[in-house]
Write a structure and sequence with these properties.
The complex is a heterodimer of chains A (about 325) and B (about 350). Chain A has about 325 residues and is of the alpha/beta class. Chain A is built from 10 helices and 14 strands. In chain B, α7 packs across α8 and α8 crosses α10. Classes of the chains: A alpha/beta (about 325), B mainly alpha (about 350).
Chain lengths: ~325, ~350
């Protein structure tokens, strides 16, 4: 190697090392570390989750708590992050898997290495110590429908939207909704299970068709996050605001305008902030070697009395009661 | 005399720097056996794809390979489906693995052959052709798997490719290095390698010289396709499942690795050893950023900065600037980069 090349390389070294100097030092020696890994960084849902992780970090100053996530929605990138984190020797991981199947391999190895694994939105994950779900899917579907029935006074035609017929949770929600509607003999289900593919525009077109076909329709129950926006727009443009009820899964910020105008009656969701706190709370319990038992209080709103059953693998399935139904008056408490 | 290759020196230097600084920021954890194994296990899939991109670029004619990761996923999906038709993964793990590997390699070969034929004989620009075949491969994989992930399971021999260790080194990494050595050998010491690089550096001259130009192009893309399917086998083995949308970000990263390795986008020059080092550099860097608890957006930024840095090195011949003797030699040669090595 030439001397001049060496010079140049050392210039590189100086640059790299000065960049490293800015880095945070490695975690303190004996404190336990829990890292939350989300599907993607920088989208409202997971920014909201991060606020929960930060609250938990403030409540537990002795622990090293933080949240990370890939910059792109790619299961390979999430896999790399999880792999690197396992290698750093983090004590516990709280993961919202992009694709539970892809992570099975590394999670299995992490558990062999003694890392505590807690997952969320992955009730089919086999290699996890505990999977936390915000609510029971049937309860949620029934609650959405109950709110719809209340708005419709238990009378009239109604229909349902799902993201796709293959979406297991969506089908569970509308199925439970249909069951709930049987309590009201006046409610008549027409053209059920329209597929929206979570596309607000497509849903808008489809909702317009339904409004034309059934001019006397009184209610919509929707499932995918963007459905309320499409159906809400169709209702508003048809001048039916206040006459047709719309209850479905949605996020407070995007739905705000339609909630204010009354085109959306109510939205249902679970609060990622609380889910993030609950995951960390379970991880902390497990790090201390404590058992999570049926009916336990995790100390997080919506998870005061959790149902604990055997999960898909050896781990537990922990179900909370964290559903939120927000309408015009209450959505401002959950702006994300 | 060999043309001085700045990328090799810079990459080696970067690897040393990254390892040292990684050890500093993590109290040595970064250089622990577990992490070294973990990083080595992550390199092969993207490294194989990058070698595929390098070959496509080197053969010239605006060569590029955009269908790599799609073909890798398709190989995995087809192989998992086919193998599951014959035997169960848990019942006869050895037979399952064999069928899986053969099926995946066949798909890679056919996919690469398709690319090569389209580009060589129908004269479709490589960027358009591979973009088209990329969508075609993705579509096929979606249809075959119904959009869901296909379970491969953990049949012993196949599982070991992605997760096993030989003398504490991940098997997948050893596989990657041996494939890289083989390709490097072929490029350097066989007529095919010479034809490939010469076709890339001056297609017209090589045609007049009587090189089988079309066959060289077809063979190059076929090899590239086989490399993709190897990546697909490693992915399937590491993740126990295959899915059509795995690694969507790999497409650009593979190109980034090739450019960082000094492969000429116009064709005619590329060294496998640099591609390997460049893939290792990127892995070291992204793992270090994870160890430093930095946001993953910083990683994109750092990769971008690296790429621009390497482009500057290539463009302004910074290495020559620092070594006057070499500059004197190379300026006396008409087209130094067209020379082999």
């Amino acid at each position: 190697m030439k001397f001049s090349t060496l010079l140049k390389n050392s210039a590189f070294a100086v640059a790299a090392l000065s960049a490293v100097g800015l880095a945070t030092p490695a975690s303190a020696q004996d404190s336990k570390a829990i890292t939350t890994v989300v599907k993607i960084s920088g989208i409202p849902w997971f920014d909201r989750m991060e606020t929960g992780v930060k609250i938990f970090a403030d409540q537990n100053p002795d622990m090293d708590i933080r949240q990370v996530g890939p910059a792109n929605a790619d299961s390979a990138q999430q896999l790399q992050i999880v792999q690197d984190l396992v290698a750093t020797g983090v004590d516990a991981l709280a993961i919202v898997p992009m694709d539970p199947d892809i992570l099975e391999g590394i999670l299995g190895r992490a558990m062999d290495r003694g890392t505590i694994i807690v997952t969320h939105e992955a009730d089919n994950q086999a290699n996890t110590h505990a999977d936390i779900e915000a609510f029971d899917n049937s309860d949620y579907g029934a609650a959405l429908n109950e709110r719809l029935a209340q708005c419709m006074d238990g009378e009239g035609k109604w229909t349902t939207f799902v993201g796709s017929l293959g979406s297991r949770t969506h089908m569970q929600w509308v199925g439970a909704g249909e069951e709930n509607a049987e309590k009201y003999p006046g409610m008549e289900l027409v053209d059920p299970n329209n597929e929206s593919f979570d596309d607000a525009n497509g849903t808008y077109e489809k909702a317009k068709e339904i409004l034309r076909k059934h001019p006397d329709i009184k209610g919509f129950q929707t499932s995918a996050g963007n459905d309320v926006l499409g159906v809400g727009r169709a209702i508003e443009e048809a001048g039916l605001t206040g006459k047709v009820c719309l209850v479905g899964t949605g996020l407070p910020n995007p739905s705000a305008a339609y909630l204010d105008s009354g085109a959306i009656t109510a939205i249902g969701f679970w609060d990622p902030q609380k889910a993030g706190m609950a995951m960390n709370a379970v991880a902390k319990l497990m790090l201390k070697g404590k058992q999570v038992t049926d009916g336990m209080d995790l100390g997080v709103e919506g998870y005061e009395s959790v149902t604990v059953t055997q999960g898909a693998g050896k781990g537990l399935l922990i179900v909370g009661n964290g559903m939120v139904l927000a309408d015009k008056d209450t959505y401002k408490d959950y702006l994300f | 005399m060999r043309t001085k290759d700045g990328h090799f020196t810079v990459l080696i230097a970067l690897i040393v720097i990254l390892m040292t600084s990684g050890a500093l920021v993590s109290d040595g954890q970064y250089l622990s056996l577990f992490n070294l194994q973990s990083m080595a296990g992550q390199v092969p899939e993207i490294g194989l794809l990058a070698i595929g991109v390098m070959l496509a670029m080197s053969v010239g004619n605006g060569g590029i390979e955009l269908s790599g990761i799609a073909l890798a996923n398709l190989s995995g999906v087809v192989a998992a489906t086919v193998a599951a038709c014959f035997v169960s993964a848990s019942g006869e793990p050895a037979t399952f693995s064999l069928i899986f590997i053969l099926a995946a390699l066949t798909v890679g070969l056919l996919g690469g052959l398709l690319n090569g034929l389209l580009i060589a004989y129908l004269k479709i620009t490589a960027i358009l052709c591979t973009l088209g075949t990329q969508m075609f491969f993705i579509g096929l994989a979606v249809v075959l798997s119904d959009g869901r992930s296909v379970r491969v399971g953990a049949p012993a021999p196949l599982y070991d490719i992605g997760n096993g260790y030989l003398f504490e080194v991940p098997v997948s990494f050893l596989l990657f290095i041996s494939v890289a050595c083989f390709i490097g050998f072929v490029l350097r010491y066989t007529p095919f390698g010479l034809w490939l690089m010469m076709t890339g550096s001056n297609p017209k001259a090589s045609e007049y010289a009587g090189f089988p130009k079309h066959k060289v192009i077809v063979a190059t893309y076929t090899v590239s396709g086989i490399l993709s399917s190897l990546a697909g086998i490693i992915i399937a083995s590491r993740t126990i499942n295959v899915k059509w949308d795995y690694g969507t970000s790999y497409l650009l990263v593979a190109i980034l690795i090739a450019v960082m390795a000094g492969v000429r986008p116009e064709g005619g020059y590329g060294r496998v050893v640099c591609v390997v080092l460049s893939a290792i550099t990127l892995q070291l860097m992204s793992s270090m950023l994870n160890f430093m608890e930095l946001s993953n957006f910083v990683r994109d930024f750092a990769w971008g900065a690296l790429l621009l840095g390497f482009l500057a090195i290539g463009r302004f011949r910074l290495i020559d600037f620092f070594s006057p003797q070499v500059r004197a030699v190379s300026s006396s040669v008409q087209s130094p980069q067209a020379q082999k090595q």
